[in-house]
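Reopening this one. Same input as before:
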Amino acid sequence: MLSWGALEKVIQRECYSHAEVEHIRNLHNSEKRIRKCRLGGRDSGPLVSNRSHERMTADAFHLVADWYHFAILNLVKLDEHKLESDNWIAETLQITRQQAQDAKNRLLRLGYLKFSEGVWSRIEKPLLADFGCSDYALKQSHAQSISQAKEALFNVNLKLRNISSVTFPADPKNVQIVAEEIENFLVRVSERMGCGRKSAVYNLNVQLVPVSKIEEK
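Same output, byte for byte:
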């Protein structure tokens, strides 16, 4: 197993962000604890190759944290697309060409995207939980979705978007019950929006949050 000092050298070379560094540090510490438990306090050796583990960790973090990865996976399902063109992806999603190229390569490495015999396809598989779909990455993803909704509020025609809200008295104990209903609602809407000619990628956000102070017990 690489020491943290050795990992830091790799991190500096790869130019990871502060958030990614903290994420890798947590995974590194967790892996040490797992090895020691397995052999009664002795190090059992690397669980996976160090270099592969570092790349996979960063890839998994970006997959969850950066919204455009899932957008690219859904571009594949449009009736017409030019996924072979990084410029087309960048223009369609309004991101940089470098972001489009990096994201597409990352999806190919992780096995969520496949190019075979001139055809692009999306591979349905669960997220790489073993490599840290961290709480921070998920929060960053949600923050980006909220920012997109705010931008659409001012820049997208009302006929092409819907933003609704309601304020009501509530028992906070019901949040987890309602969360399951929201999940089912998300599935129903995505299926309904997928009927007909698919020419655009949408994102549906549902936020259920308190607007009054809650005393947590």
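So the earlier flakiness isn't reproducible anymore. For the record, The first strand starts at residue 113 and ends at 116.
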